[in-house]
Request: fold
Amino acid sequence: MQAIQAAPHPNLAQAPAARAAEHIEVRPATPDDIAAMQTLINGFAAQNRMLFRSKTELTEFLHEYLVCTVEDRLAGVCGLHPVAGGLAEVCGLAVADDAGGRGIGSRLVEGCVDRARQLEIAKVYTLTLVPGFFEKLGFVRVDKSTLHLKVWYECYRCPKFANCDEIAMVRPLDLDDRADVPTHGMSARASGGEGPA
Reply:
């Protein structure tokens, strides 16, 4: 599941003029980020918008996550989970409620897409409740049944398992050179792009 806003972090809400001078960085997650990542992710999980993550899970799969910091405060997180057959999931996208308007969600997704390219993954997908956000980033809606069987590796843990309302979306990376697909050329450590988050 993908979420875009969560509980606020102190001192992130500012006037637009002050935001222009902020230092925003997208980078690989580190062990020091785990507690803040868990708080952000599990805030959404409590609203049935994504799955709960334990510290053990986050530690085990830490290498799959990117975080976005605003003035050294963790304001967003997103993961890239390779599944099978050149396919990977953009997952666990969560952005702090008071960090909106900075393009954090877009920066994180594009960072994951760039990481997928580095891993020579042909296509990324996501399961989301906010399809409009992902459409702006070049994802297209698809029938869930067309995705690889291993896509459903965690679905049994979801409280919506029997009545899923998420929308499946894919972004074929070999089509990213088309003029109508937005790309931001971001590396995992770069920042850029715009979005609702």
